Amino acid sequence: MSWWYRIQGLVKTAIRSLQMHKLRSLLTVLGLVFGVASVIVMLAVAEGASYQAQQQIASLGVKNVIVRSVKPLDRSTTAGQGGNRDEIRYGLTYEDLRCVTDTIPALQSVTPMRDYPQELRSGPYAVQGRVVAVMPSYFISNRLDLARGRFIEDNDNRTAANVCVLGEELANTLFRYQDPVGKTVQVGELSLCRVVGVTRYKNPSAGIGSSLSAQDYNRDLYLPLATDRSLHGDLLFKFDQRNQSFERMQLSQITVQVREINDVKQTAAALESLLVKNHPQRDFAITIPLDLLEQAAATQRIFNFVLGATAAISLLVGGIGIMNIMLASVSERTQEIGIRRALGARQSDIVIQFLFETATLSLIGTLLGLCVGLFAPALVAQLSGMETRITAWAPMVAAGVALSVGLIFGIYPARQAAKLDPIEALRRV
User: Fold this and answer.
1) Are the beta carbons of 375 and 40 closer than 8 angstroms?
2) DSSP 225-239
3) Which of 325, 314, 336 is nearest to 420 (CA)?
4) What Rg do the C-alpha atoms of the chain give, in angstroms?
5) Positive or negative CA dihedral for 143, 144, 147, 152?
6) How many C-beta neighbours within 10 Å does residue 384 have?
7) Structural domain spans, the chain
């Protein structure tokens, strides 16, 4: 156990040496404290931002392939209707839905929907909202929860029932201080629908992918797809007063869910080859959330590397500070080193002694930096409203780099101390 007592003696000697210059030691330690803390905080902020983006993408469903109608720029899709009015026909159709259902293998579900802006009214209150005609599977694929009432059911579509489900914000606007379930909403000029449910608040999604725009589910009114079809026909009319044109679109979107995640990309390729036959003008776009998720993860790895490297510069500065204080310590303790060498201490003993002092500084700075770094992200999140996430590897990497930097920058001063000639060292009194 002699080695244990030797280590204890070296640690005590290192602590006594650092206590002789408390302020200088504290300032040196602070370099590592801020270095370790900045690495953890910057990676936590980056991880939080990445997590939010990936959650939005994952909410689309990693087993889903989303096909959405896109208005083409080519005006050759228009047909004159007399005068200066044009009719623009584009987008997905019920025939596309039938072909997808009958042709594409490995499907777990197919969810069509149609959405368009419309004035919604209840009593004295009116709002410009979004009507979304859906099948019951829409609520599952978009992970919507109920606040009260029920969702649209299969029977509602079979009977084309005049029922609807409201988003929470829309319900609060149209039915202030009232329970909307059982009451009616006027959709446009003619339709009246009975409210059967209200969805729970869901954070609006940002625009994801080339074909998906931002969505605020809380302002939507959901109708059975069959009801919308019976009220407005198979074609959706949109009138543009400036251009005096009508837009006709049967379906806004078809979401295909496959059974196995390995079938996603193969299914997307099959969908494209199937639809392009009936849509040579390319008035549709396919979004694969799995691809977006993989791209977001790859981007995050690069982002973490850049932020980590930037924050690591402060660790480098901390290491330079350690080298500076240890070189100053060697200069001040020349007589002590000479006496130790004269009494028989080897060069390796001197190196080990100074390395223990360096290790003590590095360890104290790293531990304090970990404490600050683990506490600071929560404070940043509270003050800025940004989400932060501390991964297990971030503190370990920060601590490992800090200790390594401290020891590496302590080697040179330790070797300089060991190389001092004992006689010359004793003369510098």
Assistant:
1) no
2) HHHHHHHH-SSEEEE
3) 336
4) 34
5) negative
6) 10
7) 2-56+295-427, 71-282
Residues 6 or more apart from 132 whose CB is under 8 A from it?
113, 114, 115, 138, 220, 221, 222, 223
Backbone angles phi, psi at 89, to 5 degrees: -110, 130
Q: Which amino acid is it at 117?
A: P
pLDDT at 163: 93
Give me the phi and psi of 133, to 5 degrees please. Answer: -90, 125
pLDDT for 7 equals: 64
For residue 279, what are the contacts with CB-CB under 8 A and spacing of at least 6?
A: none
DSSP code for 202: -
Sign of CA dihedral 308, 313, 317, 320: positive
Give me the pLDDT at residue 314, please: 72
Whole-number pLDDT of residue 11: 65
Residues 338 and 357: their CA atoms lie apart, in Å, by 18
SS3 call for 207: coil
| Predicted local distance difference test score (pLDDT) of residue 263 | 81
In which order are the strands placed within the sheet that holds 78-80?
A: 78-80, 86-89, 245-249, 236-240
Q: Which residues of the chain have pLDDT under 50?
A: 77-84, 209-211
For 19, the 3-state DSSP assignment is helix
End-to-end CA distance of the chain: 37
- Measured CA to CA, the distance from residue 43 to residue 380 in angstroms comes to 12
Burial (0-12, 13-18, 19+ Cβ within 10 Å), 235: middle
Other C-beta atoms lying within 10 Å of the C-beta of residue 394: 23
